[in-house]
Amino acid sequence: MQKRSIQAGRPAGATTFDAELAQAFGAAVRALRTEQGLAQEALAHRAGIERSHMGKIERGEHIPSLPLIFKIAAALECGAADLMAATEAQLGSAEA
């Protein structure tokens, strides 16, 4: 019997996208951004990403990587934990 080689990464067909979580995170980012009176483009510039990418994050079409979450939190002048707490609050309000 032949051994199968181990490949790095996800198994074929696996996905980590969670639409509900992505929308809650995006809503939390948008709420914090508008609270501060920041334009989406200004936040994207502070975080070092394209405005269109920030738009996808805010609309829940993209889940950012952990390093990008930290960049967005820094751009919003809050901690990543605060951003996650805001995301959890959005999830809680979506369930109510």
UniProtKB/TrEMBL annotation:
Cellular component terms per the entry's GO annotation: cytosol
UniProt KW DNA-binding keyword: yes
Keyword DNA-binding among UniProt keywords: yes
Database matches in Pfam families: HTH_3
Alphabetized InterPro entries for the sequence: Cro/C1-type_HTH (IPR001387), Lambda_DNA-bd_dom_sf (IPR010982), TransReg_Diox_bact_type (IPR050807)
PROSITE patterns, sorted: HTH_CROC1
GO molecular function: DNA binding; DNA-binding transcription factor activity
Keywords associated with the record: DNA-binding
Segments forming domain HTH cro/C1-type: 29-83
SMART domains registered for this protein in UniProt: HTH_XRE
PANTHER family found in the cross-reference section: HTH-TYPE TRANSCRIPTIONAL REGULATOR, METHYLPHOSPHONATE SYNTHASE
Full protein name: Transcriptional regulator
Native organism: Hydrogenophaga crassostreae
Origin organism lineage: Bacteria, Pseudomonadati, Pseudomonadota, Betaproteobacteria, Burkholderiales
